[in-house]
Write a structure and sequence with these properties.
The complex is a heterodimer of chains A (108) and B (119).
Chain A (H helix, E strand, L loop, with lengths): L8 E4 L5 E6 L9 E5 L6 E4 L13 E6 L2 E6 L8 E9 L4 E4 L3 E5 L1
Chain B lengths: L2 E5 L2 E3 L5 E8 L8 E6 L5 E7 L6 E3 L7 E6 L4 E6 L8 E8 L6 E4 L3 E5 L2
The chains are: A mainly beta (108), B mainly beta (119).
């Protein structure tokens, strides 16, 4: 089955840019979605279809996808961005939805 | 406002059964695909099951195939997950999640219901 690989943790100072990667074999040929999950809360969709933002999500959140890596970029990081972030794709070869293992973003 | 409210979780013995429900409101339920996603304590997200808008198409993760059954009632705006032959590794918070239109993401999630499988 298709595997998505994320770094367990990323740390960044307030005001800086955080980049969270999601690796997969030829992931650039798939469509990637990203979720934010704060402790004790349900996940929230922050980027869909590689780079689109749902209404209500700040422009500071952006996504890209090429080759073997998709990236969620959070500009001008704030303390409130501290959360777990998950990438997700649909694997058409198996009709399964796949999540990455998640990345804990720490704001220093 | 879109709302998804799960119910039915609880403590069950290994080998037992449980039926989860998700009540939907704030959107035309019959037009949307629905999913169940779970999260074991301290672990990441795992997609569990999908059901198409009409209820005719279902998919399951390999880890639950043959033991869990998804269904929906479009007249009552609800989706269900019948869980049989439960194992300790099924212990998790189970989230109901709405499928995105024309794409394979989850745009709204419920708050989840905890299922604990233990003797």
């Amino acid at each position: 089955s298709y595997v998505l690989t994320q770094p367990p943790s990323v740390s960044v100072a307030p005001g800086q840019t955080a980049r969270i990667t999601c690796g997969g074999n030829n992931i650039g040929t798939k469509i990637v979605h990203w979720y934010q999950q704060k402790p004790g809360q349900a996940p929230v969709l922050v980027v869909y279809d590689d780079s689109d933002r749902p209404s209500g999500i700040p422009e500071r959140f952006s996504g890209s996808n090429s080759g073997n890596t998709a990236t969620l970029t959070i500009s001008r990081v704030e303390a409130g961005d501290e959360a777990d972030y998950y990438c997700q794709v649909w694997d058409s070869s198996s009709d399964l939805w796949v999540f990455g293992g998640g990345t804990k973003l720490t704001v220093l | 406002e879109v709302q998804l409210v799960e119910s039915g979780g609880g403590l069950v013995q290994p080998g037992g059964s449980l039926r989860l429900s998700c009540a939907a409101s704030g959107f035309t339920f019959s037009s949307y695909e629905m999913n169940w996603v779970r999260q074991a304590p301290g672990k990441g997200l795992e997609w569990v099951s999908y059901i198409g808008s009409s209820g005719r198409t279902m998919y399951y993760a390999d880890s639950v195939k043959g033991r869990l059954t998804i269904s929906r009632d479009n007249a009552k705006n609800s989706v269900h997950l019948q869980m049989n032959s439960l194992r300790a590794e099924d212990t998790a918070v189970y989230y109901c999640a709405r499928g995105g239109i024309d794409s394979f993401y989850f745009d709204y999630w419920g708050q989840g219901t905890l299922v604990t499988v233990s003797s």
